[in-house]
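Can anyone check this?
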Amino acid sequence: MGNLQKEKIKRLLRWADGKNAPPLSIELSLTYQCNLRCRFCFRSDGISREDSLAYTDWNGIVGEAISLGAKQINIGVGGE
């Protein structure tokens, strides 16, 4: 069993005991802005969603996750 799997089990057991169990990984979506208007997508309702954060905000989020013990940070995008 790898170290990451052992860490996941350890944190799950802490959580199950009602103790503090900080995140092992976080997922950040840099944007959900989309220029398409697909009929099936809730983002095509015409409501503008300005959801972009400044670099310093992202830096703070990543720094806090690391200080809590996060081992993985996954970065993606939600728009087209």
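Reply from J.R.: I decoded it. The beta strands are 25-29, 72-76.
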